[in-house]
Amino acid sequence: VVSSEVESTRSTPFSSQPEAMQNDEGRIVDLYLPRKCSATNRLIPAKEHGAVQFNVGQVDEDGVYNGEFYTFAIAGFIRNRGESDACLNRLFNEKSLLTFSK
Question: Whole-model pTM?
Answer without folding.
Answer: 0.66
